[in-house]
Each structure stands twice: as structure tokens, then as C-alpha cells.
Amino acid sequence: MNDSKFSIWMMAVRPKTLGAAAAPVIIAVSLAWSSGASDWGVSLTALFCALMLQVGANFANDYFDFIKGADTVERTGPVRVTSAGLVTPQEMKLAMVMVFALAVIPGIYLIYRGGIPIMIIGAASILSAILYTGGPYPLGYHGLGDLFVLIFFGFAAVCGTYYIHAGEITFESLAAGLATGLFSTAILTVNNLRDMETDGKTGKRTLAVRFGKNFARLEYLACIAIPCIIPMVMYVKTGLHPFSMASALVFIPAVPLIQKIFYENPGPGFNKVLGDTGRLLLIYSLLFALGRVLPG
Questions:
Q1: CA–CA distance, 146 with 139 (Å, rounded to integer)
Q2: CB neighbours of 219 closer than 8 A, spacing ≥ 6?
Q3: SS3 category, 136
Q4: What is the CATH number of the domain that holds 65?
Q5: What digits encode the pLDDT tens for the residues 28-37?
Q6: Strand, coil or helix: 161
Q7: Residue whose C-alpha is closest to residue 68's, from 53, 83, 86
Q8: Inter-residue contact 194 to 77 (CB < 8 Å)
Q9: Neighbours of 125 (CB within 10 A)
Q10: Cα–Cα distance, 263 to 47 (Å, whole number)
Q11: Containing structural domain, residue 155
């Protein structure tokens, strides 16, 4: 593959989104580590599968948004390679299938370790990634994208990964799942605010389109603030792992992003806010994980 073709496919992969896939696995592994149930084989396999699912979802989004005409010349977000004519729809569809297959093959090992619940989570994750923009009732086009992200980038990812390690779901895994799910929803909210005008014209009824800018702004604030409170609640309830509360410090660099969301008009400038929010999620997960493995 030549350099230009490689760069095109890297645009389609959308590397900046991969942190949202890695973050819940990092947190779940730290929970397993602190409970004495760590297994690096399972951890690395779960991380690989999560990244492949994210790439597959990005490819599906690129393909189906082109098919449905949602990616127009007025779009202010990063280049979508199919709508830009850089990749044919057939190529993108094939790439989507291949990447999902790359998630399924090692996923068999996770099913072997975790049983039927993991098979259900895996199948639902792939199906939802496709139905997010594909199928007769695309979730993202009817305001269900936020719920989808909360469930699959939060509860399913954290609780599922923790369950493979420890064989149970705990209060802490549920709380941590809520945190990463909300943070990932914040990323989606920035995306939906930025694309409000073009989404409205093409019939994509996101929550931002349905309820307006102020609702989406408050949603973003809540999706950043609540995850910063959750580690404190976990410490108060359990009295363990006080250093994990350091993850709440990401609220400080989040303040300028919140100000931009509230006081600037949606547009291309929100691309940086989206990327910065994704980085904060990754930093949050690393601080949380470090706090779980440190003695205290």
C-alpha cells in the first residue's frame, strides 16, 4: 500500500476515536488487577477486540452515512473518505467486514473464558455498530446514539471486560462503566452539536437536532461532571483506592472546553474540542487505573 493510500485509510480509521475504545478496557483491567483477578492474556485480547470494534464502527459510519446521503459538502467535520471519493463504497464495505472479523476471531477466546454473556455482548456490539447508521432504523438518526454510546462504551465494555477477568459484575464495575459511558457520550455530543445544521437538513434527528443547542450544551457538561464525581462516590462507599480520585482532576482542563461549548457557535472549531475531549477521557482512564493499582 503506497503512502497516499495508507493516509486515506488512516483517515477512515479515525485514530483520535480509539481512546474511547481503549479507556473502558484500561479501567476494567485496573479493577480486575486491584481485586486480584488480573490476566494479561485476557486484558490484551479485550483491548485488541475493543479497538477493532471501534475501527469497524468508524468504517460502518463512513459507509452508511454516504449511502444515506448524510455526508454532504456542507459537513464541517473531518473528511469522510467514502463521500470524498477517496475510497469506493465497495472497498469500505469490504474493509468493514474484514475489521469486524478481526474482532471476532480473538473474541472466541474471550467467549471461551467468559461464556454466553460475553458472546451476547460481542454480538450486540457488532450489530449495534452496524445499526448505528445502517439498517431500516439507524440508531444515530433517531436520537438513540447517545444511549447506544452510554451502554456499549460504558457498561458493556467495562462490565464485560471485568466479568471475563473476575466472573462477576460489581458496584465498582457498574460505576466505572457509567463514568466512561458518559465521557464517551460527551464526545458524541460535541460531534452532534458541530453537525446540527447538516444533520437537520439530511433528516438525522440527533438529540442536538431534536432538543436544541442548550440541551446539548447541558448534556456535555453533565457527561463531563458526573464521571469526575463517580471516583469520589466509589471511595466514600468502599473506603479503598483513594488515589483513583485523581481522575477527577481532568475537570480542570475540561473547563475551557465547556466554555467553548457554551459560548461559541457550533462549527469547524468544535473539531478541536472533540479531539481534546477524547484525550481527556484517555487521561481520566489512566489516572483512574493508576489510582487502582497504587497501594493505599
A1: 9
A2: 146, 185, 186, 189, 207
A3: coil
A4: 1.10.600
A5: 999 999 999 9
A6: helix
A7: 83
A8: yes
A9: 25
A10: 37
A11: 3-293
Cα–Cα distance measured from residue 108 to residue 289, given in angstroms and rounded to the nearest whole number = 26
Question: CB under 8 Å, gap of 24 or more: what pairs does 189-192 form?
Answer: 189/146, 189/216, 189/219, 189/220, 189/223, 190/220, 190/261, 190/270, 190/273, 190/274, 190/277, 191/77, 191/274, 192/145, 192/216
Buried b (16+ CB within 10 A) or exposed e, 263-295: eeebeeebbebbbbbbebbbbbbbbbbebbeee
| Mean pLDDT value across residues 6-16 | 93
pLDDT value for 268: 87
Listed in sequence order, the DSSP H helices in the chain are 3-13, 18-34, 40-67, 89-114, 116-131, 145-150, 156-166, 171-194, 196-202, 207-211, 213-238, 251-263, 270-293
Amino acid identity of 145? G
Asked if residues 240 and 30 have their Cβ atoms less than 8 Å apart, the reply is: no
Quote the CA–CA distance of 191 and 193 in Å, as a whole number: 6
pLDDT at 1 over 60: no
Number of structural domains (the chain) is 1
Q: Which one-letter amino acid corresponds to residue 285?
A: S
Residues 6+ apart with CB under 8 A from 104: 122, 126
Measured CA distances, 224 to 30, 66, 196, 206 (Å): 21, 31, 21, 19
What is the rounded CA–CA span in Å between residue 69 and residue 85?
A: 13
> What is the spatial distance between Cα 277 and Cα 289, in angstroms, rounded to a whole number?
18
- Please check the confidence at residue 73 and state whether its pLDDT lies above 60: no
d(CA 26, CA 10) in angstroms, rounded, equals 23
